[in-house]
Amino acid sequence: MATLASKSIEALELRDIQDLLGASEGQSLEFKQELTFDQKSGKSEDSWLNPPAPGKPRSGPDDYAKEDLFRAVCGFANAEGGWLVLGIDESNDNPKCGVAIRSLPDAHALAEKLERAALDWFDPPLTSIRCRAIDTDPGFGVVVIRTPRSSIAPHRLNKSGRTRESYRRVNEETRPMRMREIHDMVINRARESVRIEEDFVQARQHYGNLLPTQSPQRRIPGCQIILTPLSDQLSVDRPYAHSHIFRRHNALKCVFPDGKELIIESVDGNVLTKPVSITPILRGARAVWRHATKPLGAPLIENMIALEIRSTGQVSLTLKQCSGTPALMLQWILSDLANTLRVVDAVRRLAGAPDAEFALEADLRYDNHGNTLENISANPLPRLGLLADEEPALVQRMLPTGFIHLPRYTVTSSNLFPNVLLEVANDIYNLCGNQHLDGIEFQLG
After folding, report:
1. In degrees rounded to 5, what are phi and psi of residue 278?
2. Chain segment 154-164, per-residue pLDDT in tens
3. Which of 9, 169, 294, 363 is at 20 to 30 A from 134, Cα to Cα?
4. Do residues 434 and 386 touch, judged by C-beta distance below 8 A?
5. Among 177, 199, 233, which residue terminates a domain?
6. How confident is the model at residue 379 (pLDDT cuts 50, 70, 90)?
7. CB-based contacts of 337: which residues, under 8 Å, 6+ apart?
8. pLDDT given for residue 392 in this prediction
9. Which pLDDT does position 270 carry in this prediction?
10. Half-sphere exposure (CA, 13 Å, Cβ side) for 21?
């Protein structure tokens, strides 16, 4: 189980499944030997196990088997999340243990069908479920279903003609929820929503703490990226003791539809910079990167990046540049957004919740860092550089105000990080009157 707690579903391998043999079912782990079937129907097995006609796909799985699987999924979503592994023989112990792999045919097609079917089985919908097949033999495998803790619980099964119960995982059992439990869960989730809003407000209050040490400029454009976990269950012990999670990459690769590649550099992408220090802060840690350069005949340029990681799992990054001609480039924003997403992935693994969902907010700002922080909201944000969709070059646009609060985004599994980058890029393009960047692919590496 320790392996599952430290890996995303995309990273699982056969040896991870083999390591589960001997493990016991519990709060976040459920084994299923097979696709169950309704014995009263006269069937001897689920339709999926019947060989398909030549040239035809397999039928099934039947609703009886889906209900059995999704009951456990519902229980995980309404508790702390969990893993269901379909294709593991169980012992008769209490709690049950995994004893052997029982492979299922066409496991990849089965995983796809289950993930699609899940969209129609829950109220409210559970869109964060991930199903993945892991090959055990040619044409056979097991199916792993990962269910994160839901931020919009409680959920119930909601399929016409089937049960409409809500379930919750309690130790190794999936139990129907009583009305009082459902009522309490609604109240607790509402409190979590308030906590999330407060987390964003508090993170924004730290934006003014990053100030230049060499440049005299005080009218400074910048960007703040904040990611906060949707669950209050994440815990990162002494973030300052884990220097690897503060690692930054100086570039991100972007591939255009015609195959052309663009290396998207961070604000300090032309230099190899290390954090000045990683210092403890209240319930967290902070790292700062600084680089100053004096071009011939031009004012001093000072780049500043600060990354804060809280013990709650919250991650925030602040980026600013002081120069004679204030500017904020989209490539800087995207490059360090990619860095922040990488940090979130490392934080989730460290906390033992590799698929925990986060909420993401980003602000584009132009401020006067005088005696007090004053946003220059009446003036346009100067010189926002955009990635041209016709060719890998930079074009200049103006944003209408000195404070842009982008919409909130949801961050789930790491394989969807490129989608988050594209969504943010398209929102900024639209702000500037540009069309979407169709066909662009971001590669985080």
Report:
1. -115, 110
2. 999 998 777 78
3. 169
4. yes
5. 177
6. low
7. 225, 362, 420, 421, 424
8. 33
9. 63
10. 11
